[in-house]
Amino acid sequence: MRIFTNQSHSGLQWLLVMFLIFGAGTQVLAQNEAVITGTVVDEKGDALPGVTLLVKGSTQGVVSDGDGKYTVNVPGNKGVLVVSYVGFLTQEVAVNGSATIRITLTGDAKALNEVVVIGYGLQKRETVTGSIATVKAEDFNAGLIADPLTLISGKVAGLTVTRPNGSDPNAGAQFSLRGATTVYGYNGPLIVIDGVPGGDLQTIAPSDIASVDVLKDGSAAAIYGSRATGGVIIITTKKGKAGAPTVTYSGNVSFDQVAKKYDMLTGEQYRKLGTDNGLTVDDRGANTDWFKEVTRTPVSQVHNVSVSGGNEKTNYYASVNYRDFKGMDKVTDRESVNGTVRLNTKALNDKLDFALNLTNTFDNRTFANYGAIAQSLNMLPVYPVRNTDGTYFENPDTPYQLQWNPVANMANNTNGAKESRLLGTVSAAYRILPALKASVNYSIIKNSYLNSSFSSNQDFFQQQNSLNGQASRSQTTNTNNIFEGLLTYNKQFGQHNLDVLGGYSYQNIFEEGLGAGNNNFITNSFLYYNLGAGRALNELTPGFNRSGVFVNSYAWERTLLAGFARVLYNFDEKYLLNLSIRREGASVLGVENKWGNFPSVSAGWVLSKENFLADNGIITNLKLRGGYGVTGNQESLGPYQSLSTLGAFAGQSGYFDGQWLIPYGSTYNANPLLRWETKNEVNVGLDFALFKNGWLNGSLDFYNRRINNLIGNYTAQLPSQINPNIFANAGTMENQGFELALNAQVANRDKFSWNVSFTGAYNKNKIKSVTSDQFKGTAFNITDVGVGFTQRIAAGQPIGVFYGRKFAGFNDDGKWLFYNQAGDAVTAEDAGDSYFYLGSGIPKYNLGLTNNFRFGAFDATILFRGAFGFKALNAKRIFHENYSNFTTHNLFQSAINKGVKNDQMYFSDYYLEKGDYLKLDNLTIGYSLPVKANGFIKSLRFYATGTNLLTLTKYSGTDPELPLNVDLSGEQEFTTGPGVEANYSYYPFTRTYTFGITGSF
User: Fold this and answer.
1) Where is the TonB-dependent receptor-like beta-barrel domain (predicted)?
2) What's the distance, CA 23 to chain centroid?
3) Is the same domain home to 221 and 121?
4) DSSP labels for 599-664?
5) What pLDDT is recorded for position 626?
6) Is residue 815 over pLDDT 60?
7) Domain identity same for 128 and 209
8) I need a labelling partner for 580 at 20 to 30 A (CA). Which of 92, 502, 609, 998 fits?
9) In what helix (H) or strand (E) does residue 583 lie, and over which residues does it extend?
10) Which domain holds residue 57?
């Protein structure tokens, strides 16, 4: 466990103060107390566990045990117990000297309906007309959680969560809701944390999350306007409850092992293959397993401590979270400390509600050059790690310097990042009238990133390029100020229920940064802490190698303004209507299109409340709903991309006539017509509960979403434009699909229960057009894996469709044969431009299946997750199964029997594979220790979890869980795309075994 720098210590001082304040009042001597015992039951006489019993006017209270029994101390022989439980009416029970009290709670018809979080409010599940999925904390995935969204992986139909970067603790998950939403920039949903839009998931600790609500369709998400095309994910964190202070601890330790690794040639196999095929073997006498040399068995740990409590007026929640994640390679590490304080209080006869939320996270990351792990697959097994004199072995004579030592690279390079994230919210709500409430919220999101890198003068590339050591640092600070005001009116008129919302939102984001880099240091001792000590920054001699030498700074700002309104109406909770509108302006858009409207309408009919379905014995609940909504996407655009701007081209600077000159030129062409991408979505759904007590329930949704005005950085018309590229809207994309969610309570007895949940989704994606009135686009190629493009954006095809030659075999000389347009098998030279569409890398079908068991004090959860209907490209095969790379790459053992022996590298469907997979993704077994009803320990549970335990697939790579999205915000010649395992990057997937404990006191 490392010790954080002063930056981290200063940020944690307030946490220590808060815990001292909260902890000071938790121990109070009881005087003249009466001991009251009893049982809490429902109207049928069944015991109710987990009921809160609070002594009125104090913070003293208890929770009923698994048999509904309780023991509580009441001052004196008189007093009142406030008894509350979800789904039941709260009761006040007078003690009046009784020693034993049996309490019967009455079901609250309104409370029995689940409440879900929607945009800017709450709504009963029974009256929801959009497509919204909710996952509670008790249903979260267990194990080692590095990214909060993996908590709900496989739990929400239509939401796909993958980790294409394997077990790398410094890489986040990728997520997609109902398919791709753009070809340029961010594809994922808008993240809302405790009502704050635009939050960073890495700010919050997974253990602090109480629930996740996913707004999937356009009618549900339209209230968030121009950032909701990818849907909305609302995170609700834990808060305090009335009752005695409760301290909760949870912790775990995890061990990783590689789930599947590539079978590379051993030294002996490499020598034999070379000898048998007449290939040159540069034999240095070694038999090195390079992957083993750069990896380890990592051990990670997580610890969480929280304290919560309160009374009828005020409640609080505070927590500290420590996470230490170790990577599979010998360098990568992520150490994180998170602190949270949440306070809620009432005043002015309960008319005023005040809330304060404060969360601060500090991350200290170290990581290897990701190419070093991939290089362990390239390095020849006949090369040693070290020379006989103890120095690292290197081979500078290999073409393109492709044989560099990854062990030495890890030792001679230091890469790190220090990050701090702050999320703070202050809110106040005043009830003007019983039905009218006004509220204001101010939030700040402030993130700071310090990235550092250093290469010593012993590094292979430093020596080859005579740089004598290289270092750089960059600092970025992003500040997001959000102010929102809301006015809500909620009134019931007989059987008419009306809920009206009006609001205003202002959001301003300001980012600034600076960086510097230098080379040619006289010592390695400075690392990146003394950049000025490098010679190159001040060396103006012509011809001096200035690689990695720079000084820069920047700043940008963007602003969003919005007004919005919503009307929720229902008659007798049977006929339902939802209307909303948001008008929003964004500074990043063209001057002609800065404002837009985002309306929605949805309606529902609860058929099960009609007389013709009453008392039928099968249908407990049946609701038909449908909706239409418009949302937008302006997250793909950066500030000023609609304007004509000038900037320095430092990369093209140099000596001209004896002077060092930096050229300036156009960086963007102006486009006053630039607008946000707009999604129009229709959704029709059915919610149902069947049989006695609705033991089988679920939902079925059909959707059609059309995304217009796709944003891209296109080739500009010259010479009418100055810069060769222009940001413009061109193209249309469509997603169609259906989703099914099922829940079944198979068994529910005193000592045994079994619940099953299933989620399934189908999505069909198609690019409808790549042109517009302003820009006449054509199909274009993307995803270069090192041998030319492999995918394409084209009308009539799925986004990122594979595009290349069709394999026809090998001729007698071992040369490639491909089909031409006439269907004839010809050589690569004769095939020319005979390219074909070869299938999509995005799964059409996704499923999740969860089984929850309880047997006495034991519990078990089994999660299966799968994806089907897509092609996968293992680009590593192109390089590691071709004998032409024998001297620059180690080969796969599969190359012995099916390697390409006498021709160069080409991409074709020869390398495309069926990517379908089914995973045993999570298996958890737990044991809850029986505890005394009024003892010091309120609950104690031990558990063991295995993740990524088994994968059933025909894919030859290490894992078929590949990237989902297309992102052209960088160069189009990027090395990854949907369904592509790139050659030049690699981080192994692991099986993780976690052992943990949770308890409350």
Assistant:
1) 416-853
2) 35
3) yes
4) EEEEEEEEGGGSGGGTT-SSEEEEEEEEEEEEEEE-TTPPTTTTS-EEEE-GGG-EEETTEEE--E
5) 97
6) yes
7) yes
8) 609
9) strand 575-586
10) 31-111
User: DSSP string covering 243-259, please?
Assistant: EEEEEEEEEEEEEEEES
Highest mean pLDDT among 82-91, 315-324, 606-615: 315-324
Task: Using pLDDT thresholds of 50, 70 and 90, give the confidence band for residue 20.
Answer: very low
User: Are both 126 and 103 inside the same structural domain?
Assistant: no
Q: Tell me which H or E stretch contains 22.
A: helix 6-24
Evaluate whether 208 touches 578 at the Cβ level (below 8 Å). Answer: no
Q: Which helix H or strand E contains 221, and what residues bound it?
A: helix 218-221
User: What is the per-residue pLDDT for 285?
Assistant: 94
Q: Using the 3D structure, point to which of 219, 240, 261 is the last residue of a domain.
A: 240
The answer to whether residues 222 and 683 touch, using CB atoms and an 8 Å cutoff, is: no
Q: Please calculate the CA angle 332-333-337 and round it to the nearest 5 degrees.
A: 160
What CATH code is carried by the domain that includes residue 177? 2.170.130.10
* For residues 640-647, average pLDDT: 84
The segment with the largest mean pLDDT, out of 265-274, 741-750, 973-982, is 265-274
* Bridge partners, 214 (sequence order): 133, 233
Instruction: Give the whole-angstrom CA distance, residue 253 versus residue 945.
Output: 10
- Apex CA 218: angle with CA 217 and CA 223, to 5°? 120
Same domain membership, residue 230 and residue 161: yes
Q: Which residue has the tokens 């070093």?
A: 372
Whether the pLDDT of residue 838 is over 80: the answer is yes
pLDDT for position 112: 45
Instruction: Judge contact between 710 and 682, C-beta under 8 A.
Output: no
pLDDT higher than 60, residue 19: no
Token reading at 581: 């509108």
Residue 238 in tokens: 């834990």
Q: pLDDT per residue over 100-158, tens digit each?
A: 899 988 765 444 467 899 999 999 999 999 999 999 999 999 999 988 989 999 999 99
The CA–CA distances, whole Å, from 280 to 271, 274, 413 equal 9, 6, 32
> What are φ and ψ of residue 732, in 5° steps?
-140, 140
With H, G, I as helix, E, B as strand and everything else as coil, classify residue 230.
coil
- pTM beyond cutoff 0.85: yes
Residue 720 to residues 669, 670, 716, 723, Cα–Cα distance (Å): 10, 12, 8, 9
Q: Environment class of residue 256 by beta-carbon count within 10 Å: exposed (0-12), middle (13-18) or buried (19+)?
A: buried
The CATH number for 75's domain is 2.60.40.1120
pLDDT per residue as tens digits for the range 409-423: 999 999 999 999 999
CB burial of 135-148 (b: ≥16 within 10 Å; e: otherwise) equals bebebbbbbbbbbb
Q: Show the CA angle centred on residue 203, arms to residues 198 and 206, nearest 5°.
A: 115
Helices (H), 832-882: 875-880
Q: Which two tokens stand for residue 586?
A: 């964004």
**Strands 801-804 and 190-193: what pairing?**
unpaired
How far, in Å, CA of 393 to CA of 385, rounded?
Answer: 6
Strands 299-310 and 314-326: antiparallel
Contact 825, 896 (CB under 8 A): no
pLDDT surpassing 90 at residue 404? yes
Q: Quick one: pLDDT at residue 513?
A: 98
Domain membership flag for residue 234: yes
The span from the CA of 990 to the CA of 163, in Å, is 11
- Given a cut of 60, whether residue 17 has pLDDT beyond it is no
Q: Which residues pair with 514 in a beta bridge?
A: 475, 553
Q: Tell me, what's the pLDDT at 108?
A: 55
The helix or strand, by DSSP H or E, that contains position 372, with its residue range, turns out to be helix 370-378
Tokens 């194990």 sit at which residue?
Answer: 143
User: β-strands 677-690, 595-606: how paired?
Assistant: unpaired
Do residues 322 and 300 lie in contact, with contact meaning Cβ atoms separated by under 8 Å? no
Same domain, 135 and 235: yes
User: Same structural domain for residues 107 and 120?
Assistant: no
In a domain, 931, yes or no: no
